[in-house]
Amino acid sequence: MTTDLLESLRPKAFAVAYRMLGSVGAAEDIVQEALLRVHQVLRAGERIESPQTYVATVVTRLAIDELRSARVRRETYVGEWLPEPLLTDSADDPAERAELADSLSFAFLILLESLSPEQRAVFLLHDVFGYAFAEVAPIVGKSEATCRQLAARARRHLRERTPRFTARDDDARQLADRFFAAVEHGDLAGLEALLARDASLHGDGGGKAPALARPLRGRASVAHALVTWARNGARFGGFTVRRVGVNAQPGAMILDPDGRIITVMALDIRDGRVHAVRSVVNPEKIDHLGPVADLYALLQRAARRAQRSE
Q: Mean pLDDT, 10 residues at a time, over the chain (310 residues)?
């Protein structure tokens, strides 16, 4: 019975922790700690009035502590920081519910980074997960009035900066299919036709894999960079595009000839155009999805083949 209870608590606990941290590994660690505490309390014969609220409290407090230390680490992070990608293809995954999908997007999670840990917790618990302020207050250790103020500030801050990447599922899927087909074939004109004029390309290598030092902006620059990457990929033996949902957005895993992950990409789509491409190549952020390719070695192989062909 206890095992069933713990497993029933896990999905929502992870949903909160991941949105707080943008890290799959850290979220899983925090959830495991929270569930262990529930198990210990119940094993001792104590009663938990609301296991869900208890777990939300433990997860949120641990996540706030983790965020404070993570902010210090991110000050020295090499290059642009992106969240760890989460695959969202399963139809029965709670994260797929429409009211939660927007709060999973890379763009939204990156915006949350600009909030204080307490603002982030209050906003997510109240506005995303539907907790009443009377429930949120003891979770974050603030008064109900303070929580209302924190939520209002967070809401105002996010409203001013949140881009709306909305498209019908079928339309977005078809556009993404065409986009990744153009990448796979190195089709410069095809990519430019699908990209918004002010499109941006973002890469996160974290100093562990080659990536953009800073975002590229503009349709031509983004298309050219993607085509150059595709040509390099052809030189190191080719690559495969596996279409997946990434953080409730159209995306893909790019695999090397041995099926190892080179990068995970997510697309921001609005008004029939791709407005942003976000690519995570940091192996520490994608190894939870499977074996990861050595991108440095692949690029060296491509360079040697290019020299031999000259």
A: 84 95 95 93 85 94 91 81 88 51 89 94 96 96 97 90 63 94 96 97 95 95 96 86 94 95 95 95 97 90 73
Domain boundaries, position 184: 169-309
Among 48, 78, 108, give the residue marking a domain's end: 78
Would residue 270 count as lying in a domain? yes
3-state secondary structure the chain: CHHHHHHHHHHHHHHHHHHHHCCHHHHHHHHHHHHHHHHHHHHCCCCCCCHHHHHHHHHHHHHHHHHHHHHHHHCCCCCCCCCCCCECCCCCCHHHCHHHHHHHCHHHHHHHCCCCHHHHHHHHHHHHCCCCHHHHHHHHCCCHHHHHHHHHHHHHHHHHHCCCCCCCHHHHHHHHHHHHHHHHCCCHHHHHHHEEEEEEEEEECCCCCCCCCCCEECHHHHHHHHHHHHHHHHHCCCCEEEEEEECCEEEEEEECCCCCEEEEEEEEEECCEEEEEEEECCHHHHHHHCCECCHHHHHHHHHHHHHHHC
Is the pTM higher than 0.85? The answer reads yes
31, 60, 78 - which closes a domain: 78
Q: Does some domain include residue 114?
A: no
